[in-house]
Amino acid sequence: MKATKQEIKMGIQRYVDKELSPQLHGAKGVGIRILLAVGIDGVAEKYLEHPMLETIGIKDAEGIELDKLYEVAKQEVEKEGKVEVAGILFDASDVEKLYQEIAGVKGGL
Questions:
Q1: How many whole angstroms separate alpha carbon 10 and alpha carbon 26?
Q2: At CA 47, angle to CA 29 and CA 85, rounded to 5?
Q3: pLDDT tier at 40 (50, 70, 90 boundaries)?
Q4: What residues are paired with 89 via a beta bridge?
Q5: Residues 74, 95: contact at Cβ < 8 Å?
Q6: CB neighbourhood size of 40 (10 A)
Q7: How far apart are the first and last CA of the chain?
Q8: What is the DSSP code string of 33-74?
Q9: What is the pLDDT of residue 86?
Q10: What is the pLDDT of residues 41-80, one digit of tens each?
């Protein structure tokens, strides 16, 4: 399944709203929510426009090959167990949830 940058960004925002925001409390939570709200678009854009995605065949003019990216990301996170990003721990189930949110945007769910 191919997804556009906009669909991926919308899926990321849905994931943040459903999974992360409810867990972020206190000053740290407020700070992270602000950073996510302000910076998520720029960060997503930076990674979704990275030339390596085209080089490895995950991205073309139609979009990003979501299934392939998901499979590799899930495998790599499973190898590590938990991965810390901006003070938040992610595991393979988070990769699955993020994938489902993006697929939900793509499928109109």
A1: 26
A2: 30
A3: confident
A4: 84
A5: yes
A6: 14
A7: 15
A8: HHHHHHHHHHHHHHHHT-HHHHHTTSEETTEEEHHHHHHHHH
A9: 64
A10: 787 788 888 899 899 889 998 999 999 989 988 999 999 9
Report the amino acid identity of residue 96. Answer: E
Return d(Cα 16, Cα 38) in angstroms, integer.
13
Quick one: DSSP state of residue 88?
E
Cβ atoms of residues 86 and 93 within 8 Å? no
**Token reading at 93:** 């189930």
Predicted TM-score (pTM) above 0.70: yes
Tell the residue number behind the tokens 């678009």, with chain if given: 41
Q: Tell me the two tokens of residue 87.
A: 């003070």
**Neighbour-count burial for 13-23, b at 16+ CB within 10 Å, e otherwise:** bbbbeebbeee
Residue corresponding to tokens 């109109």:
108
Residues contacting residue 90 through CB under 8 Å, at least 6 positions apart: 77, 82, 83, 84
Residue with tokens 């080089």: 55
